[in-house]
TrEMBL record:
<dbReference type="Pfam" id="PF02830">
    <property type="entry name" value="V4R"/>
</dbReference>
<protein>
    <submittedName>
        <fullName>4-vinyl reductase 4VR</fullName>
    </submittedName>
</protein>
<dbReference type="InterPro" id="IPR004096">
    <property type="entry name" value="V4R"/>
</dbReference>
<dbReference type="InterPro" id="IPR024096">
    <property type="entry name" value="NO_sig/Golgi_transp_ligand-bd"/>
</dbReference>
<feature type="domain" description="4-vinyl reductase 4VR">
    <location>
        <begin position="111"/>
        <end position="173"/>
    </location>
</feature>
Amino acid sequence: MFKEVRTQPMFDWSMIGDIKEGRPNLGATMDVGVYRLMQFTLRDILIKKFSPEIADQLYYEAGELAGTEFCKALINKGNSFPEFIKEVQALLSGLKIGILRVEKADMEKSEFTLTVAEDLDCSGLPMSEETICTYDEGFIAGLLHEFTGTRFKVKEVDCWCSGDRVCRFEVKPEASA
């Protein structure tokens, strides 16, 4: 299932498996440090084998696929946009991914500024004067594309690692990005 060569993603939500059956004692939760161990060692190897730019591109694309599939599997697509945002906020908080807020919204232009506090990827990391939440950029782009049908470009403009205490994302339709 994972070792065949292909040009298109083949991810399906069923690949996550039956966690209740497979982890009857340990359950669905784990320490954030273990997630970051996987995330940052994988990123380190991608940078070593390719480059920081390619690692970022791959993380963005993986996040976009995850956001798309997350929306397909867990979001009510019959919602209005405000209901969609409320549902995403509840899911991200309930799953302990982060606390999503809409800081600005221009519904006519489909442009948004979103923040994520207590972000799974970076909150609590040391200062590095760079934004690192490329996976989150793609995840937000995938969520919004799947829900609206419009492709978005998402760029992190502030990050815990760059000195902010929330991650801030500028969201614009791809044509105007």
